[in-house]
Write a structure and sequence with these properties.
With 256 residues, the chain is an alpha/beta fold. The protein has helices at residues 7-12, 18-24, 30-39, 58-65, 77-86, 121-131, 150-163, 202-210, 213-216, 220-237; strands at residues 48-52, 69-73, 92-93, 107-113, 132-145, 190-201, 242-255. It has 10 helices and 7 strands. It has a 7-stranded mixed β-sheet. Helix 4 links the parallel strand 1 and strand 2. Helix 2 packs across helix 8 (202-210) and helix 8 (202-210) runs antiparallel to helix 10 (220-237).
Length: 256
Amino acid sequence: MASEPEPTTRARSFDSAAAQYAANRPSYPPALLDAIEESATRDLKGARVADVGAGTGIATALLHERGARVVAVEPGAAMAAELRRTLPDVPLVRGDGNHLPLATASADFLTYAQAWHWTDTAKSVPEARRVLRPGGTLAVWWNTTDHTVGWLADQDARVRAYLGANGGGGAHGARGDGKIQPDPPVFDFVQRRIPWTRHVPLTTHLANLGSHSAFLVLGAERAQEFLTEEHRVLSALFPDGTVEESYVVDLWTATR
């Protein structure tokens, strides 16, 4: 059985599918930003926010719409280009959470949407503490697939069986091994879980699934083999061609 790709390889695999990622990945419900503000010492409007691992700008756009003075931080060239295309007025710098290209005490909020698990917390935690202003808020979150829903649990089992050692939760919306910070803890995190759903065409659902790193590093032929069979299975379950994807946003916040 093939060994699992290095985390850096999987993290950078998104560059090969930036447009697919932007077009098919889910966004986040308004309740998420409400929850971030409730945990903070100030509102997002007018706040200096660094959205780290911004990708194509899915979360960046929501923060910008809330009136935040947001800067996007993204290491991948193609992902950054997609963000520039859709959000030309949002400042963008190249970098990652382990080495933030930001001044000390310069941010009211640091946000990581689907990105914290790609960092080395031995580096990203002290970097977050350095960049946040006193009283600033660190918010990290993941859209996790709700496997209490029967058809999604069944799909996850098929994904894991197909991908084997390379599958894991990362193929289907989980957040890695669950380690938020190293020991001893630096931040006093509070966790909240926010359920939500979206209705999408079956083709969008499958393109979203195929944009996860475990499929991107698998190779186009093997990934398409699974997705073709999955289309057959789901077409029988959803003959009208529309699926309801169920998620739980797993949000962790902490104050500097």
